[in-house]
Amino acid sequence: MLSRILSEDFPRSKTLTALLLVIVVSLALGPFLFDGIRAFTTLGMICVFIMVVAAYDLMLGYTHIVSFAHTMFFGIGAYGVAMAVDGMGNSFGAVLVGIIGALAVSFVLSLLLGLLSLRVKAIFFALVTLAVAFAFLSLVTQLYNITGGEDGMRVRVPRELGPAFRPFENSLPGIDVPTLLKGLLTQPWNIGQVWQEATFEVRFNGRNVMYYVLVAMATGVFLFLLRLVNSPFGRVLQAIRENEFRAEALGYRTVVYRTAVVIVSALVATLAGAGFALINRYVNPENTLNFELMVFILLMCVIGGMGTLYGAIVGSTLFILAQNYLQDLLGWVGQYTAGIPLVENLLGEDHWLLWFGVLFVLSVYFFPAGVVGQLRIWALQRRNRKSPPPSGPEAEPVAQT
Amino acid sequence: MAEPILKLSGVKADIDQYHILHGVDLVVPKGELTVLLGRNGAGKSTTLRTIMGLTTLTGGTVTYQGQDITRWPTPKIARAGIAFVPESMGIFGLLTVRENLVLAAVSGPMDEARLQWIFDLFPPLKKFWDKPAGTLSGGQKQMLAIARAVIEPRDLLLVDEPTKGLAPAIINDLADAFDQLKEQQVSILLVEQNFNFSRRLGQTVAVMNDGAVVHAGTMAELAENEELQQDLLGLGLGAHQ
Amino acid sequence: MTEETTAMPLSETGSGSERERRSPIEWLRDQREHRAHLFLLAIMLLASIAVIDFRTWLVLTISGVAMGAVLFLMASGMTLTFGLMSVLNLAHGAFISLGAFAGGTVLAFWLDGFASSPSFLTNLVAIIPALLFAAFIAGVVGLVFEKLVIKPVYGDHLKQILVTVGGSIILMQLIEVIWGPNEIPVTRPEALQGAFLVPEALPLIGGIVLEKYRLVAVVLGLAIYAGMLWIIDRTRIGILIRAGVESREMVEIQGYRIHLLFLGVFIAGSALAGLGGVMWGMYKELLTPHMGDEMMISVIVVIILGGLGSIRGCFYGALLVGLINLYIGFVEPRLAAVATVGLMVGVLMWRPQGLIPVIKV
Question: Domain of C239: which CATH number?
Fold first, then answer.
C-alpha cells in the first residue's frame, strides 16, 4: 500500500528515510510541537516551498530545463488570490476565483514559454525566462493601482482561515520540542520540571486550519509529482534528459513533453503561490517575484538533490531553517569572534548568505547529487559492498538504480 | 626499413562510452607515406584523433620520435611537429584564406618562399586570398586544409580521407602535392578509402578492421598480391573508384 | 538559412551593376536580410522621430546612445566569453558592481581632491586611475574566478549556471563585507557635471541641453568599440579569437593552448564589465552592491539580441536597448522594462540566433 502511494519510488536509504520521517512528522504535528510565531511561519514556509521546489525539480532535475521564470508563476498565484480577495471580499468564492484566474494566466504564459523553447535552444531559453520574469516583476511593481506596487498588498483571508476563528472550544496540549531538548540536555535529572516548561497551550485557530490545508496541499502535490515522474510520462522525460536526439528518433515529440513539463511545473508553482498568500497574508514583489527568491529555489533544489523529488523536501527544510535560524547560530559564534576585525565581519549574522553560497558552490562540485542523491549513493555503495554486482560498463553510479 | 617516426603499441581508445580501438599496433616509418586502409567504422579516423590526443586513450602508448606522447595535450603534440588534417578539414569558414594560413603559421610570419610554393601547388588559394574560406569549393577547401598543415615545416602529417567527394582532376593535384611533400622527407600517415590514390602514393600500408590493425607491410607487396587484395578487398576496399 | 551569409554580407562582393538592377523594395529586403542590425536601428530611429518632437528626440537619442555605450562595455565581455568558451557567467553582474565600487573608492575617497576641482585636466588625474583601477580589480578577480569557479565546469552548462549563480552571491556578499551593506554616494567629477547648452543661434538644434557626462560616455564607448574591432579584425589575437569561436578543437590542433586564450578573454571581459560598472556608478552617483545585477537584465537582452559571440552584434544590441529604454521611458515610463524584453522576444522570433549570429547556439 505504501508502495502504491509512493509510486514505488522509495527513499532507498535508511538515513534518508529517517530524515524524511522526522521532517514529515514535524510538519504534520507542527503546531503542536513548536511554540511561537516564528516557528509557525517557518513551518508554513517549508510546506509552501516543498511544493515550489518539487515543481522546479520536475523541470530542472527530471528534464534538465533551466528556467528562471518559476517565481513569476509563484507570484501569479499569490497576487491572483490577493487581488481577488481585495476586489471581491474575503470569501472562499473569491479565493477560488483568484486561484482559477491565476491558474489560467499561468497556463497561457507557460504554454507560450514552452512553445518559445521551440525556437531557441537551452541557454537562450534560460536567459529569456530570466528576462521575461524580470519584465513581469517590473510590470507588477509599476502597476501600483492594482498591485500595490512595491508596498504590496494585505490579504484578507476568509474568516475560517483567520486568527479569529476557533474550531475547538478549549485549548489543545502541545509540547515545545526545542525547549524539551534543551531541558533534557541541560538538566536531565529534572524531568518533571523540564516537561512542565515544555508544555504549552495550542490555541487552535483559523491560521492553524490554513496550515493544515497547506500540509494537505503539499502532500497531495508531492505524491502527484512522484506518481508523474514514475509513470510512462516520467520515463520519457528521463529519456529526453539522457539523450534528446535519441528520444526524438524513437518517435517522442520532445517539444510536446517539454512544454507539458513547463506547464505542469508552472501550475503547481501557482498553486503554491496561492497557498503562500493565504498563510502569509501579505504579498509584495520582494517575497514573491524577486530574483533572489528564484536563486533560493535553485539552491534548495540543488542542495536537496536534483531529480529526486525528495530533495525538495530536504532542501526546502534545510534552507528555510537556515534562513530563519542560521543567523542565530552566527550571532552565537559572533560572541566569540567579536573584536577580530575582518573575521567578525565575515561571520556576522548578516552574512549567512555568504556561507550558504560557499556551501552551495562546494556542493555543486563535490556533491552534485545533493543531500538526497548522495545519501542514496552511499546506501547503494553499502549494499554493493555486501553483495558486489557483476561488472558493467557503467562508470558512474546512477542515483536512480 | 627506415626508423619509425611514430609508433603505436596496444592503443585502446573510447569515444563517450563506446570502445573504438581495441589495441592498435602501428609503425610509421620516417620519410615515407604510410596508408591506413580499412572499411568504414574500422577505427582509422579514431586512430588519427587518438594520436593527436583528441580522444580518451584507455591503454597503450604512442611514441613520436622516441618520445612518449601518450598523455600529452593536443597543442603540445601539434607543436612537437605533427600536423593533422581532419576528415572535416576544419577550415575556419568565417576567416579569410589568408587568416587561416596566418593562424596555421604558429611560429610567426609566413615564409615567403614557402608561401610561393603553396601558391604553385594550389593556385586557387592565391586567387581567393582575401575571401572567406567558407566560400571555397570542396576541393579548394581541401587544398587550404593541406596548405595549413604544411605552411610551416612539419615532420609528420596525419591526413584523413582527403579525396572524399572530390573530382578526379583535383585528386590529381592532391597527389602531386603529396609527391612533393614526400620529396621533402615529410613522413605522412594517410587514411584513405580510394585504393588507386593510395597505391600511387603509399610506400607502406596498414589495414584496420574492428579497431585493430590486421595487416601491415609494404604497398608493393599488397599491390602485387591479388589474393591478398581479395582477402582485404573482402573488407570493403576498392569500393570507391 | 546559411548563417555564414548572414554574418558576412556577401552581397558586398557583387558588382555595382547588380545593385543598379535591384528595385528599392528588393534593396530593403536585402538590408533586412543581411544587415538586420542596421535595419532595426533605422526603424527604431524613424518610428520614434515620428512620435516625439525633434529636439526632445535628439536629446533622448544621445542619452540612449550613451546608455548603450555603457551597456556595451558591460555586455561585450559576457558575449565574448560565451562565444569563445561557451561559458555562461551569471556572476558577470558582480564584476560590474565590483568595478563600480573599486573605481568609486578612488574617486570618492582616495583622489577626491582631484575629482572636486573644476578643471577637467585635474579631474582626469582622478578619473583615469579610477577607470584603470576598476578594470584592474575586476580583471584580477576575474582571473581568480576563472581558475577557481569556472574552469572545473567547462562544457557543463547546467553546472555553470549553478556555480556562477553561487559565485555571484559570494562575490556580492564579499562586496558587502568589504564596503558595508549601505549605499555609498559618489559625486561625479566636477568637470563632468552639468551640461552643454547648444548656442541658441544654431538652427533646429539651438538651445538644446546636452549632458556632459553622456557625451563622455558615448566617446568612451565608441573608442573602446573601435579598439575592440581593430583587435578582432586586424590582429593575430583577433584571428585566434574568431577561430576559437568557430572551433575550439581546431585551434588546439593548430598548436595553440586555447585555455590561455580563454583566460585572457575572460579577464578582459571582466575588466570591461568593471569599466562599465564604474561608468554607471559615476552616472548614478550612488553605489549599491546589487547595481550590477540590476543591469544584468539589460545585459542579457543585449547579448541575446546582438547574437552570442559577436562584438558588432553586441554593440548594435546595446544601442537598440539603450534607445528603446529612453524612447519608451519618455512615452510611458512604466513600460520601459517590458518593452525591452518585448524587443528581445520579438527579435528572437524573427532571428532565433540574434541580429548578427556568429556561433550556432
Answer: 1.10.3470
